[in-house]
From TrEMBL:
<keyword id="KW-0378">Hydrolase</keyword>
<dbReference type="GO" id="GO:0042781">
    <property type="term" value="F:3'-tRNA processing endoribonuclease activity"/>
</dbReference>
<protein>
    <submittedName>
        <fullName>MBL fold metallo-hydrolase</fullName>
    </submittedName>
</protein>
<dbReference type="InterPro" id="IPR036866">
    <property type="entry name" value="RibonucZ/Hydroxyglut_hydro"/>
</dbReference>
<keyword id="KW-0862">Zinc</keyword>
<dbReference type="InterPro" id="IPR001279">
    <property type="entry name" value="Metallo-B-lactamas"/>
</dbReference>
<dbReference type="Pfam" id="PF12706">
    <property type="entry name" value="Lactamase_B_2"/>
</dbReference>
Length: 245
């Protein structure tokens, strides 16, 4: 499977680049993970959004869903004959947002909850409720055919439960909003927590994502590498970054 970063900033887009969104493909199946601000145009550089097979959302903060409505409008206005409804997976703990996943003739909301295993095309997905001001779920996505997996932390402060959830995954995409020194924050990880989790989890590659506009990102990367050293490859998220897993 192949993972492409479409947007990686936390909170708001910046310098022509968008907030959280990732495209995951396996064979000809494509899954959009979150739909952050400014990422619809990036999605179009990789696939025709009419051919997108499914969307999954970690939570309903604006920086993760801002381009979902315009994706629905695009599918509505460019509809092909016999075009299937776009399944959009989300949690049901915010009625207003969950109901907006369904748009007649365009898309259909599908519920997930912690403890579920969701089968979406070639992928099998499990969840971990994160530490965040609103209900939010990290996801572990396994490609059934190969057994390869990735974990997307979504937005979270540190919780011990992450150690078990990320163990031995092939790729970690982690909220790395803070430099070292801001551990145990109630909303986001520090890069120290991310790098240490990567090493303990025996994970070969970590993408530092959900980045903050007001910090030195080279210093963030340096702090991660000081911990991961030779045990893992640490990468700063970047628009268009593609990894094969
Ligand atoms: Zn966020
Ligand atoms: Zn959030």
């Amino acid at each position: 499977m192949e993972l492409t970063v479409l947007g990686y900033w936390g909170a708001y887009p910046w310098n022509d680049e968008g907030t959280s969104s990732y495209l995951l493909t396996s064979g000809d199946f494509s899954l959009l993970i979150d739909a952050g601000s400014g990422t619809f145009n990036q999605l179009r550089k990789h696939i025709d959004p009419l051919t997108l097979d499914a969307v999954i959302l970690s939570h309903y903060h604006h920086d993760h869903i801002a381009d979902l409505g315009v994706l629905q409008f695009y599918r509505q206005l460019n509809q092909q004959v016999d075009q299937p409804l776009l399944p959009i997976y989300g949690h049901t703990e915010h009625e207003f947002y969950y109901s907006s996943l369904t748009m007649p003739n365009v898309s259909e909301g599908h519920a997930y909850a912690e403890g579920d295993t969701t089968e979406i095309g070639p992928f099998s997905i499990t969840y971990l409720r994160t530490k965040h001001p609103v209900p939010c779920f990290a996801m572990r996505i396994t490609e059934k055919e190969t057994g390869k997996s990735l974990v997307y932390t979504a937005d979270s402060g540190w919780m011990d439960a992450f150690d078990e959830f990320v163990k031995d995954t092939d790729l970690l995409i982690a909220d790395s909003y803070f430099l070292s020194g801001t551990e145990n924050h109630p909303v986001h990880f520090s890069v120290k927590e991310v790098a240490e989790m990567t090493v303990r989890g025996n994970i070969p590659t970590v993408i530092l994502s959900h980045l903050q506009q007001r910090i030195d990102l080279e210093e963030l990367l340096r702090q991660a590498k000081a911990i991961t050293q030779e045990q893992a490859q640490a990468l700063l998220a970047k628009t268009g970054l593609t990894l094969t897993i």
